[in-house]
């Protein structure tokens, strides 16, 4: 990310975003008015520090230090019209979601996020006010997740496209992969499942309520800090639930070559999800078992080592029929499995 | 990147791309036919190894090890219609360019690239054949640059959008920043400037020649390996020329708080650039001095330490008039300076 401070560009008057304040007359109204370098300033000026960030935005690359010399990397792209809609989510919510979905991937490795880089692509007629709110949401969620914005790139595009790569590291307990689940382990969940999917079902039908599930669709709330907690407690495998609980447990099952059985009753049935099921004529367990985007953490633990804050929802078993499977109360799940971006 | 090998998906018949071979009847013709998981297989199956990649695609994050525990990170996004056009560049060229522009950023830090993650966003009606050629180009350039594809994410979008984050490390000589140029240093260049811009001028007017500049527009050729060579030789500041020689030297000047004078005569005037200038009625030095996208390396060195393969093109001086400036043969350059994505 280029950030030629002092190179003669007119400084954008707000070094930090102050949403709610009216845009002064004569200020740039759109990204095209603002220009690329001022946009970069708007995103990067006055960023909070992080003790493992050796060099932030402004050179050809950023530099972080990792404990043990090992760096974890994950990338997630959010595309307007696919992962969010500007008429359904505020700019601030989209900023928050951009960080949350990425931080969850690092948590799911039993690791801590350190820094992220943002590929910000947007149309020239996007309002500067939208960008200011987006940046505020991005920064707020960075603080929540304990991660620093360390660089990126801005470019023009027809649809807003937010490509984030996040970096992290682990302590000596090492990363928790998808492949370590063993027969006899317990399956446990931390965080919510089904809320975002229920929110999407409501929004798709033109409703803005129940508010709790609509907000869950707008901004996921991954259980920050629980990834490294699970690693320290001895988690044998872990994943974040982005595609749906059964689909994501399926990834653990196939990578670990085990069967997994989920106990439906252990999931509970939150009232707002039950109510969306009723209103839309959907079995509410479809939301719980196949809804993605809440970014809960699902992990397997040896018996006796499930940490506080986690709920046991199933068991790990030996593969019974050659191919690893995920069952619900001992039987195959008959409904949809998850989401395919190209179907 | 999810890669549920063994999870029951029908395997895509080509584990490695074999362009030129006709697509068998009944094979998927578009990404929508193929599906997300088969697309991920197509991109990731049989990837070459890299000794600093501890974990490649298939989990919530990839893992690399860095010399000295220090990881360099850079992100560049290529958007269809902005950075490439499918009617101007082949899929294989676009794959190669995607790697080259990113590897150049790591080279420009005096570092070596290790791994990259790819955010691949594309419309569902994109042909699988296009993707196979793209992946082949991507992999070929990875080999050239000495970098491994270690993960990523695929999603649907209206325009092809290629967001790459590349990671690297440096030896004990440490990174070379933009901020270290000192009065008395020499400015040296390694690689080509102006070729891609001349190619763009030709293509924009409907020409496919001179072939050399058109090809330079389609695939940049960063001088791989010269970044760490410059660092070892004692380079004090470095940048890759992506916005234009004067604009990028301007970044070094402002970060280092120095003046830079470029000696036009030292640049030479390649015949194809002269000929595009003539055909389009443009001063050909506009291409050399302000054309970006060739991703040459520009660096500053103490006298006597410029390594072989580098051409001295100017000098670093004390700031004469408060604000750092870049001049050409002692005078301000009157033409355009570079490229702003939102103007």
From TrEMBL, chains A, B:
Mg(2+) 4 binds at residues 60, 74, 105. One of its GO terms (biological process) is thiamine diphosphate biosynthetic process. Substrate binds at residues 83, 293, 339. Its EC number is 2.7.4.16. Pathway: Cofactor biosynthesis; thiamine diphosphate biosynthesis; thiamine diphosphate from thiamine phosphate: step 1/1. Mg(2+) 2 binds at residues 76, 105. Keywords: ATP-binding, Kinase, Magnesium, Metal-binding, Nucleotide-binding, Thiamine biosynthesis, Transferase. Mg(2+) 3 binds at residues 60, 105, 240. ATP binds at residues 152-153, 178, 242. InterPro entries: PurM-like_C_sf, PurM-like_N, PurM-like_N_sf, ThiL-like. Signal peptide: none annotated. GO terms for molecular function: ATP binding; magnesium ion binding; thiamine-phosphate kinase activity. CDD domains: ThiL (cd02194). Mg(2+) 5 binds at residue 243. Mg(2+) 1 binds at residues 76, 153. It holds the Pfam family AIRS. Belongs to the thiamine-monophosphate kinase family. Reaction mechanism of ThiL seems to utilize a direct, inline transfer of the gamma-phosphate of ATP to TMP rather than a phosphorylated enzyme intermediate. This is Thiamine-monophosphate kinase. It comes from Raineyella antarctica.
